[in-house]
Fold this sequence. Notes:
With 142 residues, this protein is of the alpha+beta class. It has helices at residues 6-26, 46-62, 86-97, 107-112; strands at 30-35, 38-42, 69-71, 77-79, 82-84, 103-106, 119-122, 137-141.
Amino acid sequence: MSTLGDEAWKEILEEHHARVRDSLAHWRGTEHDTAGDGFFATFDGALRAVRCALEVVQSMQLLGIDVRAGLHTGECRTIDGKLGGIAVTTGSRICAVARPAEVLVSQTVKDLAVGSGLHFRDAGVPSFKGLTESWQVYSVES
């Protein structure tokens, strides 16, 4: 991306953010934070989160960008005015091991998507920095 230059990168990033925000609105997600080209959002249902992530990945591929997504569900805490806790960290760690253009979910999210028509491929049990528990993860295949 450094070959694009700052102005071209800014335009791509603005389009990226607009598309992600459109998908969040469509799937009733709530944006909590961004860092560069990364988003942290919550949803009122696991299936909406998965569908949103798939939509974002597909939308970004049309721009020639391969993004990745990691999803987990669990109880969150408010820490210094922001959502946090083990569930948030787990979702972040799952995202970190996803491949380009991949949506990875925890076993918990997969279990909540039963009957959705989505297909999941076993992606193993990676070790996550700072977490003592291991999580089976799955790649979502739409």
